[in-house]
UniProtKB/TrEMBL annotation:
Molecular function per GO: deSUMOylase activity
Family to which the UniProt record says this protein belongs: Belongs to the peptidase C48 family.
Protein's name in the database: Ubiquitin-like protease family profile domain-containing protein
GO cellular component: nucleus
Pfam families membership: Peptidase_C48
One of the protein's GO biological processes: regulation of primary metabolic process
InterPro entries assigned to the protein according to its UniProt record, in alphabetical order: Papain-like_cys_pep_sf, Peptidase_C48_C
């Protein structure tokens, strides 16, 4: 009796589990990317199908916390909130600082730009009290505009500031404000005037547009990830479901692969 029970368990359970995992597999992805492993999908499924974890913190990194409810927004085609954006940006910075083959990256959190734009430099200058952002090659600035996520990538080495918006809109005020911030920060922390002659300020158009109202946060995360490696962007809207799963797993294990 027990023997047949074990046979049924080992034959039926993997099939049932595979059925549960099926919605997380077989999504279009760019060339060079692989499907997530069975173990990766399994680790996420345990969280997905356990609503009792809703308010439980499942990820902590660089002072940011993510509970299951926020984590689930990555999966269900929802708008990403600050917690997800900040965790992912911190992972990008962690990877760059642990890999000498990549540009050194500093990532501001999502509250930096809104505070700077609302209250000016004096309200944010203490945020980098013990840091010299100019020691980095790339600075990532998430831009939160009401219900839309954009991104600015400041490349100190290549002397340029790129504005990424998956709706392809311009924001001159943003780039002017960040230019002013860099000048003030250089004087405040290093007592050195920052010469920005010859800098390029770009609103990128050769980037994939979003085709819905909820994926702007995912696009911004991916723009930051590709830019942090100075890699050409190879994804499109059709790849976003795959990257939502990939981002979720990277957040869960607190590590980005190159």
């Amino acid at each position: 009796m027990y023997f047949y029970g074990y046979i049924i368990y080992f034959l039926v359970w993997p099939t049932c589990f595979a059925f549960i995992l099926w919605p997380l597999t077989k999504k279009p992805k760019p060339r060079g990317y692989r499907d997530l492993s069975y173990n990766a999908l399994r680790s996420m499924t345990i969280i997905i199908y356990n609503p009792k974890l809703n308010d439980q913190i499942i990820v902590k990194n660089s002072g940011f916390e993510l509970n299951r409810k926020d984590f689930m927004t990555i999966f269900w085609n929802e708008w990403l909130n600050d917690e997800v954006i900040n965790i992912y940006a911190s992972l990008i910075a962690d990877r760059s600082n642990n890999n000498n083959d990549l540009p050194k990256v500093y990532a501001f959190n999502s509250f930096f730009y809104s505070t700077l734009s609302s209250n000016g430099y004096d309200r944010v200058k203490r945020w980098t009290k013990n840091k010299d952002i100019f020691e980095n090659q790339i600075i990532i600035v998430p831009i939160h505009l009401s219900i839309h996520w954009c991104l600015v990538v400041i490349d100190l080495e290549e002397r340029k500031m790129d504005y990424y918006d998956s709706l392809h809109q311009d924001n001159f005020e943003c780039l002017e404000l960040l230019q002013e911030y860099l000048i003030n920060e250089s004087m405040d922390k290093r007592q050195i005037p920052l010469d920005m002659n010859g800098w390029q300020f770009n609103f990128l158009r050769n980037i994939p547009p979003q085709r819905n109202i909820s994926d702007c946060g995912v696009f911004s995360c991916l723009f930051a990830e590709f830019a942090s490696r100075r890699a050409p962007i190879t994804f499109t809207q059709e790849h976003i479901p795959y990257f939502r799963e990939r981002i979720a797993y990277q957040v869960l294990r607190k590590e980005l692969s190159v």
